[in-house]
Amino acid sequence: MAKSKRKPKKASVSANRVAELAGVSRSAVSRTFTDGASVSAETRAKVLAAAERLGYHVNHLARGLIHHRSGIICLIVAEMQTPYQAAFVDMATRRLQAIGKVVMVLNATGQPANVEAALRQTLNYRADATVVVSGSPPASLIETCIENGQRVILINRDDAAAGPHVVMVDNDTAAREAMLMLRRAGCVRLAVISSTAGTPSIIARERAFAAAAQEQGLEVQIVRAGPTGYAAGADGARQVLALSSRPEGVFCTTDLLALGFMDAARQEFCLRVPEDLCVIGFDDIPEAGWLGYNLTTFRQPIEEIVSQIAQILETEDEEDTGPRCLPVQVVWRRTVRP
GO: which molecular function terms (predicted)? Predict the structure, then answer.
């Protein structure tokens, strides 16, 4: 059998070859591809023509590492298939690429240790910064990243460790407002449908809602039926709506939980929303506005969160690490009685 002949791999075109073809110095090639560097129009034209002919591309990674900057920004995200996370990754990658960053998305779905492993991986790639969207990495590991010259930006989690930047939304105010909205609708028996994820943002919503209800002299049943998602919301409905004293008002800590809860309430318990039961969600995912749900919810300002991330990356002020807390907006639809 005849052996197939493989073509030898071509080496990448070097700046020296471009300089030789253009008849200029190696430094002239470097200046041509450096923003703001001084180079004559004639030299620039020669270099660009030679680069085009040879198929030359600047090695930005090597150039960046010389200046201790790789231009790489890592996003650590879990459950990217969920509508909120998908929307966040989409907007964040587009915005960061627009300001000249190379975005590396690391999937941390699964065990909590996956977040720690992903953060360690960012050190191997000498990332300029890591944005932790999901999970809570150990404070010691965050400190290690910072000591290695990497910025760490935590999303929706207030961290006690010194050094990381924090961008979060005002979960407390939103959850308290959710309780008051249900109370104004005449709801006395209240419940929170949450998940077993135990993320700082979800826990903050649970606690703030319960604290606001306690101030009104009301008790709240908190149900964590499973991982954050549609199925857990439906299971939560089965747990609380089968009781003789079922709740009149329900706050779901995410919209996906709320959608599952509402479908089970309507299909399995024949309840009407909002006539028999008022429901409020959190996130304002696209599905929340579908006619079949019309869910009253709180909108996470994804665009503003991403803008804050870009602002942190574009500034050199390492001391500005205080939490940036953004307000959330209530979106009134038809799952709460007027």
Answer: DNA-binding transcription factor activity; transcription cis-regulatory region binding
d(CA 56, CA 136): 42
The answer to whether 280 and 160 have CB atoms below 8 angstroms apart is: no
Bridge pairing between strands 278-280 and 102-107: unpaired
CA atoms of 197 and 78, how far apart (whole Å): 11
Region of 199 please: left (phi>0), alpha (psi -120 to 50) or beta.
Answer: beta
CA distances in angstroms from 227 to 109, 199, 206, 224, 319, listed in the order given: 12, 11, 15, 8, 37
Query: Per residue in 178-232, pLDDT tens?
Result: 999 999 999 999 999 999 988 889 999 999 999 999 999 999 999 999 988 999 9
Supply the pTM of this predicted model: 0.78
Enumerate domains of the chain plus CATH numbers.
15-58 (no CATH), 72-169+302-326 (3.40.50.2300), 171-300 (3.40.50.2300)
pLDDT of residue 238: 97
pLDDT at residue 160 tops 90: no
Whole-number Å distance between alpha carbons of 191 and 182: 10
- Report residue 81: phi and psi, to 5°: -80, -15
pLDDT at 63: 47
> pLDDT by residue (tens digit) across 63-97?
444 445 678 898 888 888 889 999 999 999 999 99
Residue 300 CA, chain-centre distance (Å), reads 11
Report the pLDDT value the prediction gives residue 162, as an integer from 0 to 100.
Answer: 55
Give the Å distances, CA to CA, from 88 to 290, 312, 324. 20, 17, 17
Tell me the backbone φ, ψ of residue 152, rounded to 5 degrees: -120, 125
